[in-house]
What does this fold into?
Amino acid sequence: MTFREAYITACDLLKSAGIDDFKSDTDYIFEKCFGFDRKEMIFNGSREFPDEFKSKLFKVLDERKKKIPLQYILGTWTFMGMEFKVGEGVLIPRDDTTVLVQESLNKLKNLNCPKIVDLCSGSGCIPIAIEKYLKNSPEIYAIEKSRAAYRYLTGNVSIHNSKVKCINEDIFVSYQSFEDEYFDALISNPPYIKSEDMKSLQDEVKNEPQMALDGGEDGLYFYKKISSLWSSKIKKGGVIAFEIGQGQSLEVCEILKSNGFILLNVFKDINGIDRVIMGIRQN
It folds into this structure.
């Protein structure tokens, strides 16, 4: 069996199992597991596929056919050019979240030693990426309630030699540990899916932790609670930045306005969907 034949076999097996992105999944598997990207496939696809690779390939395919997220199977995923450990119990980093990170960087890059808190940190991809790309010595806190996710958070902080300070606590309690007007910025990608919509999620997404996805009856529970409890912890003139779900921009803007935030900006993702809302604390 050649690499090309193994690739075609993998595509066929995933397609027959109902994996929508069977081709891109196969690309990732060959690149991550065997160091064989599309360029290699074009020029060296006729190379013999080693016997020791076969068992690994079919083990990965068997797991993927069960609709286990590919990211969990591979154990790592790339976000903003960085590799993050992921697995059962932690939300998978998504490209949509780069909008939240990039716009936060644009807002914070000219501050001296900004104090930042990231709520519902999960794998730590947001605070660790912000720390990497900010060159102004930020002081960053990452707060995560789930013990399973927290293990990935601290693990990724260690892997990237990060100075992000990790806190394993409920965000609706941990705000009490900080003085008023302590932070220059609060950043969060909170759960925002409506509870009734959880049942209709893709099988792969259902394998991710429900507590990182379920935003309550209207999908807005966390925006309301965070804005109410944490607003006083942000300096006047400081920033709050949320990732939001499709169709939530107007409602989240109103939540922020009612909690003393002005100059609200809405930023779109690559598909033209409102993805991030940023506000400035007025009072």
Remarks:
- The longest strand covers residues 234-243.
